[in-house]
């Protein structure tokens, strides 16, 4: 397995520390650093900065959100970052959800599958130097304009990764993408994802070897078994937020993903409590077993065994979110996790 992490350049006093984390992570041997947008800073700006400060590791947008940029603007950013980084850029795209797209950006969250397909097609047209044309959309229907090509030329390949949780988006990922950016992952229930990815791969005449499965989770090392309950309790609030707060009451892709992996009843109860405003009560409903199933938290022996399970499930790139209060602690955790992955290989 390759190793990766995700950072978010959220501003304030963390700007400098995040930059140092990225630089030091490369020295530890990390293969890929993804940069999130969420509802914080934009990904391309931070990626350009990190590209200037690193030399070897790959850098990816994890993710750039559909609907807030035109497909051509996304292609322009991707080509620019690939050229600036000397071919080290990976384009990660995701539909996000109604809360961010409509609630923050004021853009209708509609036709995410069509938007994703069009964006990937525009990228590939732009990357190859073709004139950009999408029937019924580009050029704008009814105008007197003609298709254009970008003056910028792509000097390197630009692998496309799609963030997908729903069955339909997973099938599209298998059909179109070079990689899958997954989350909310329980290896024992992985078929809830892999069956749909395989469907898309078959439709396009491809196999799993053609798709990089990149999956992420928090990693934290317990010094002994006695310390583990407190570490699990600390993670429950974040998991409850995914189940109840990452979206609306009716549309939460994370909640549905956990439900399809065998945690439907817990996911529904946590969501209802969270939506009612009882954040503490929602976290208390998350069982220890669920935290252990979906993270890389435990003693070193436990984390090693979970990584082995991830590898045996078919994960190609493990995305590590290292725990720690300080930069040093996070890097120590990341370094230990990278060593464990290398030992497995």
Description:
The chain has 13 helices and 10 strands. The protein has an 8-stranded parallel β-barrel, surrounded by 6 helices. The termini are close together. The radius of gyration is 20 Å and the shape is globular. The chain has helices spanning 14-27, 43-53, 71-84, 98-101, 112-128, 167-176, 191-203, 228-244, 253-275, 279-284, 288-294, 300-313, 327-344; strands spanning 2-7, 32-35, 58-61, 64-65, 89-94, 160-163, 179-182, 212-221, 296-298, 317-322. Helices cover 49% and strands 14% of the residues. Helix 1 packs parallel to helix 13 (327-344), helix 8 (228-244) packs across helix 9 (253-275) and helix 12 (300-313) crosses helix 13 (327-344). The protein has 345 residues and is of the alpha/beta class. Helix 6 (167-176) links the parallel strand 6 and strand 7.
The main pleated sheet reads as:
8 strands, parallel, barrel
Give the strand line-up of the largest sheet: 1-2-3-5-6-7-8-10
Query: What proportion strand?
Result: 5-15%
> Given the structure, what is the number of helices?
13
The residue-averaged pLDDT reads 94
H-E string:
EHEHEEHEHHEHEHEHHHHEHEH
* Low-confidence sequence ranges: none
The structure class reads: alpha/beta
> In one word, what is the shape?
globular
Q: How much helicity do the residues have?
A: 40-55%
How many strands appear in the DSSP assignment?
Answer: 10
From the alpha-carbon coordinates, what is the Rg to the nearest angstrom?
Answer: 20 Å
Distance between the termini: 7 Å
